[in-house]
Amino acid sequence: MLVETVKLSTIVMKLTPEMYPFLKRHELESEIVLRNGLAALETEDAMEIIQYSISEHQKDVRLH
Asked: Which of 47, 57, 55, 49 is nearest to 25 (CA)?
């Protein structure tokens, strides 16, 4: 099984470049481990990863 670690920015630029301006720098710098590598990733998978990444980064955010 091919395992590949890439930054979220790489996934976004390859599959959903229109999403790039909506993501924060620290989200784009997140490292993502892909079980079957970047070549096997599809757009739906990328959107799911982006949503999860945003959710994870918002866990520490507190509203004032």
From this structure: 57
DSSP states along 1-64: ---EEEEHHHHHHHH-GGGGGGS-HHHHT-EEEETT-GGG--HHHHHHHHHHHHHHHHTT----
- 8 A C-beta contact, residue 47 and residue 17: no
The partner residues of 6 in beta bridges, in order of sequence, read 32
pLDDT 10s digits, 17-39: 999 999 999 999 999 999 999 99
Q: Is the pLDDT of residue 58 over 90?
A: no
The separation between CA 37 and the C-alpha centre of its own chain, rounded to angstroms, equals 13
